[in-house]
């Protein structure tokens, strides 16, 4: 009862002033398209190197497509991002993991974070659950000792106030996009979570290109620094070193004794660019000078003439009908030949009632307009 009461009190009493992201940050996120993220969907792994050069842990990141449902029925495509690291710090084992579901607009709909330190007599684990429901983002942070929650904090934020938010899981995807662009928006401010899961600001800065030895090969890497600015604590900063396709070659947390690096060059991801459409120049066609085309023209002409002559021989009434029409046309000499022809051939139509041609000169014609 006391734990439930403390959760309720912390949720009701917490009123935080949420900072705002800059317009440039929101514009940057809105312009990232799915086709630009597609080459960023891959897995990679690094190792943790101590200051003495010993391998003390591992670090892995996976980004892939998946489906997400908030109610168990309606699903939407999203990105599933999972990152985990494990190793030892000063002989103390640690593990961290982040699992996030990110929409195509890079909005976080759910995120799970676990951080644990395995002391001999005092194992401690921090579990954080972030979920988006009905226009609100709910955060639950619990500190667990020996499988018992000793402290629980809950927060909720209005999603309308979180434009420009980049969670820890979304950050891994955004960094890959920046790395592939080899460009970072300068002077813009994003939103993020601090160590206590309160909303704070974060910034990205490009530190330019550097040389890095990967295995037996020296490669150029693009360096990005990310800083999270908490109101109550000193800023936390990380430096990320990227290959040209977005693979992470090195990661350094400022102040940490361990450095994450890759041991060998990965197979770089290349995007297939469509070949340009061929352009054919327009060549004038002089078919009368072309022997082959002119021969085909003569053959087709003779074929049509023979076909027309055969048709006329098989229908002698055609010659008589045309002779009658031409004779009457020359006698009347009408100004409107088309209307005259329509009136002459109208009695032969199956859709008209039978009648005599030009039965009455004063009878209104359907082919002429009368005012």
TrEMBL record:
It holds the Pfam family CATIP_N. InterPro entries: CATIP_N (IPR048777). Plays a role in primary ciliogenesis by modulating actin polymerization. It comes from Salvator merianae. Residues 25-257 form the Ciliogenesis-associated TTC17-interacting protein N-terminal domain. It is found in: Cell membrane; Cytoplasm, Cytoskeleton; Nucleus. This is Ciliogenesis-associated TTC17-interacting protein. Keywords: Cell membrane, Cilium biogenesis/degradation, Cytoplasm, Cytoskeleton, Membrane, Nucleus. It comes from the Eukaryota. One of its GO terms (cellular component) is actin cytoskeleton. GO terms for biological process: actin filament polymerization; cilium organization. Belongs to the CATIP family.
